[in-house]
Specification:
Rossmann fold, binds 2'-deoxycytidine-5'-monophosphate, 8 strands, 47% helix, 16% strand, 3-stranded antiparallel beta sheet, 5-stranded parallel beta sheet, alpha/beta, 9 helices, 228 residues
Length: 228
């Protein structure tokens, strides 16, 4: 039987990551945070003094990337290792998100990371979050969700998240960064950020995380899938 996949796509700051963790935990399914791969690639490029615009060198680097996801004691919470170095926190910066968005625009880079992402499809099921999970990587997913939120709301959420971690940033610079990243992710030629034809759109602006999860679980249950 085909291993079921739920895809949760959307721009950064829509709550994808948090929602994906909760849904995966509720179902007892595996989890793929595909943005991590692009973030780790951007970091590896930086560490090897490779230009973020050099597709010919970035593609083989992506192919050979020694990246591992390690489950922590918290169960669903994952640490990320690049060649045994714990990079969980370094890859979460805004700068690395931007760098990731740059390397992600290259088709050869995306192809190099394709099978690696599909390998996460392990029984009993997978919840995958990203930009092209429903359109490209898992086009046959049983439930496809696309989350949206206004740039202001997303920037504010990110601002609060970073603040809570003791990282202080400028809110208007954050809005600017988000707009720039959205534009690049939406306008790139390969696998741009867009909803799949059969995706369920959820505007998260007026909703809490719990409400978004509840909305997704309704769609999941409609397909006969029940929480673990
Ligand atoms: O979800 P995130 O913020 O960690 O993603 C960082 C960047 O990686 C994002 O701006 C674009 C790229 N990305 C992508 O192109 N495709 C994905 N499936 C996930 C992320």
């Amino acid at each position: 039987m085909n291993i079921p996949v739920i895809t949760i796509d959307g721009a950064s700051g829509t709550g994808k990551g948090t929602v994906t963790h909760i849904v995966a935990k509720k179902l007892g399914w595996h989890l793929l945070d595909s943005g991590v791969l692009y973030r780790v690639l951007a970091l590896a490029a930086q560490q090897n003094q490779i230009s973020l615009t050099d597709e010919a060198v970035l593609a083989p680097l992506a192919e050979a990337l020694d990246v591992r996801f390690v489950e922590t004691e918290l169960g669903q919470s994952l640490s990320v290792l690049l060649e045994k170095q714990d990079v969980t926190d370094i890859i979460r910066t805004e700068a690395m998100g931007n760098a990731a968005s740059k390397v992600a625009a290259f088709s050869r880079v995306r192809t190099a990371l394709l099978n690696r992402q599909r390998a996460f499809r392990i029984s009993p099921g997978l919840v995958a979050d990203g930009r092209d999970m429903g359109t490209v990587i898992f086009a046959d997913a049983i439930v496809k969700i696309f989350l949206t939120a206004s740039p202001e709301e997303r920037a504010l959420r990110r601002y609060n998240q970073l603040n809570a971690k003791g990282i202080h940033v400028n809110l208007s610079a954050l809005v600017e960064d988000l707009r720039e990243r959205d534009k690049r992710d939406q306008e790139r030629l390969v696998a741009p950020l867009k909803p799949a034809m059969d995706a369920i759109m959820i505007d998260t602006d007026p909703l809490t995380i719990e409400q978004v999860v509840a909305r997704i679980m309704i769609e999941v249950e409609k397909k006969g899938i029940t929480a673990a």
